[in-house]
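To assess whether the prediction recovers the assembly geometry, we first specified each molecular entity separately, as shown.
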Amino acid sequence: MNFIRFVKGSVQLFFRGTKTYYAWLLFLFVLIVWGAGGYAGQLRDGLITTNMRDSVSWAFYIGNFTFLVGVAAAAVMLVIPAYIYNWKPIKEITIFGELLAVCAVIMSIAFIVVDIGNPMRFWHMLPILGTMNFPYSMLSWDFFFLLAYLIINFVVVSHLLYSIFYQKEYRKKMVLTIVFLSIPMAVGIHTVTAFLYNALPARPFWNSALLAPRFLASAFCSGPAILLILFQILRKVTSFEIKDEAIWRIAELMVYAMFIYLFFTIAELFKEFYSGTQHLLYWKYLLFGIGDNKELVPYSWLSIGMGFAAFILFLIPKTRKNFVTLNIGTVLIYSSVYVEKGIALIIPGFTPDVLGQIYVYTPSMTEIRTAVMIFSLGSLLFTFLVKVAIAIIFENYNIGSIRREEESVRIQA
Amino acid sequence: MKKSNSRRSFLKNISLASASALALSGCSLKELEKFFQKNFRTLSEKEKKQLIEELEAEYKEKYHKEFHLSDKPAMDGTLFGYALDISRCIGCRKCVYACVEENNQSREPQIHWIQVLQMEKEKGIDFVHSDVHYNPETVPEEGHFYLPVQCQQCRTPQCTTVCPVKATWQEPDGIVVVDYNWCIGCRYCMAACPYGARHFNWGKPEIPEEEINTEMHYLGNRPRMKGVVEKCTFCIQRVREGRYPACVEICPVGARKFGNLLDPNSEIRYILENKRVLVLKEELNTQPKFYYFFGV
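The predicted structure of the complete assembly is given in tokenized form:
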């Protein structure tokens, strides 16, 4: 009964808000419809509607999947510094970080589902029901880790919100244990995702031990970037409190992450360019193009440029502590990692292909529309979840308020 | 044994429950059965037989011809091997199209299991400077040689290791096969294959009715569906009946040799003993059973 009340109350909450909020919902709705139209075409005609072919057999979808796994991982890893430095809104940071993680994992799984040729056969991958190739296939590991991570985060966040909603004490010991379990799991999901590419000797571009460390470092740049923006918005429009010092501390941590990422990348580039073996080819295609094929060059330098600019903005204390430049840097680093993971990681792995042939890939309209659909659905889910969470945490939305409301309705009747 | 029995009955219950649920929503039972079909390797003999009869009827309905669909297992004492004489190949691509016809590859969109690479004599075997789209009036072209590449039937295949659902595996006679009814189409195997030997049905495969080959094997040349991976099987439908693969038969210069690696008197063993052979990308430790050699 109480649960039904909670659901009913939450659904009502979804549709209560300012004009800006409604405009945001409408915007997402339009994007979802437009994107779904593209995906419908793919379902009907097959993946031929994408620009992937035998030479470049994974591309934009898998890149987005990788990026979102990074976001999911980093959102939770932010809990460690929040705990160690004893930032006041630790509970809030945990809750919003985990909500972001839940949405990002769901979106990343969605990108896998749209990428496979027979989504209806997804159950073949399940243990017992299907024939899962565990432990040999890294994809089965990834599936397990992502699912476990999704469940863990969902349990913690729903337990916390549920307790506050029913005005009960949450089980501190259990929550802390699971939160601390979810941190190595966060490292795990991104490591396993890197191993997915890493362990393929056929693809020299990925066959580097630095791939997983680079994944983690870049995730530590892009994940906190989203939370930085989110915390500032929450601080403006709700009674959520986070000190400037905490925000600057997050930015400071991001500088370390950016530096490590830069260092790893330079180490990788040094090894490749100084040894100058045939494996250099893929980096060459990415950074300079091969012959007339320079398709990725603008993307790769755009990503590098944005990353560098963000690094400088975050490095100089003056610009780090100025919210205008800080936010510019945040957007820049987020975009830089998105382009890097979405385009610059996957495509050079396949170009030139294993037989030395160049197939020029750029995402098709279907791929862009499908990606837009998933991102807007994910944003919608995140918006609703955050809306309920804010109401519960800051706006005294609880079982008592619902009862009071029901009572007043009854009295009026 | 007991465990697998309980698993089977569990599966049955699950499928029964979902079947009745879906049947109520107006879904045809046959489609449902298809949806719940198990991995080929977990089917009993009886289930295999029934499945094959159903498929034969389905193909007949679609292509209006009598089909023979085999599920003949590997013979004891066979390990198939292949050798290709680089000095003889003239790059005519007859093998490519014989393979397409024999193995019912899609004509639209086109799928070719064999890629012939044109290489520069000066550079030797060098993929980066090779060209798969060469198109002169006549072959061979001056200063060039040709390297046909198809599935190398590795002894330690990386494509089967990465498959998340065990839809592809190496048979006892060494042929790497795909269960098209089980493949989910994730294309991890394509990323793992160092030879570009795996091909994906990006669109709905189309084969003209009059061109379809009716002699088929479940793990080989039966028609594929949209969204699954396929590859060279050494013409499993032929070689398990003691015949040569289609590409061996068609080659006008006799550059292609095929045989049983376990038979000391076979032609393939003669080549291994008397010619110097090489395999592609040997540093990856895939240990192909597809050898290249220089006959003259």
